[in-house]
Amino acid sequence: MIRHTLVLAGLLWAGTFALGPPYAVAAPAGEQTANDPLNSPRWGDMAKAFFDGQEVVFDPRISVSGPLVAEDSLNVPITVDASALPGVEEMIVFADFNPILKALRFEPGAAQARLGFRLKLQQSSPVRVAARTVDGVWRVGGAWVTATGGGCTLPSVGSGSPEWQERLNEVSGRLWARIDGGERLRMRVIHPMDTGLAAGIPAFHIEDIVISDENGRILSRIQPLEPVSENPSFTIDLAEAASGGRLHVSGRDNNGNRIDAWVTR
Hints:
mainly beta, 6-stranded antiparallel beta sheet
């Protein structure tokens, strides 16, 4: 059974901001720190890097939940949730003060616009999620997470073990029925997820995970990047139960190694 450290209602929510009505800013933002609910001096850089020339809205319906203080900078449990928004087409997660800003991209598709996973943090930072809705507007939420540092520049445990070569891209997981309908997919993929920032260890990470039903219909897609934690775990809530009681998980890493597995109830 996979051990998941997802953040649920009982954990600290102090880092999650709450605003009044959504308000927009124009990107890039040379002097927009005052408009940032998290008051980060890096927000102007984030706006330019990810949303240059596009409309961006800070929206209280989007949340990032996680520990107020990270116990382990290599494994920070994060849940990003834009499920209160209609028509979410894609979500990106990034951390203002990480040396590699973008952590992943998520296309919810047939899933709810909510994802649980683990993240590396180099230092204390806002962790943000931006959701693009069908109207083309990016809606942003976030939370500060305090971290002792070093999460992105330390080598993975797997990089020093021969075992990962034998189990590389091995998938373990299970489907769970939800009381409100649909199913929850929890899965873990064996992979070192090296950032390339540790001396002598090149970047080596999963870059694409596709979740399909038994008939080959793509339900959801995750595109993790280097800041996602080693042996990444993901939790996805699907709107409908899987036909045939199983889902196909496929993908690849940046060296072309394939992921190919079935997850069942």
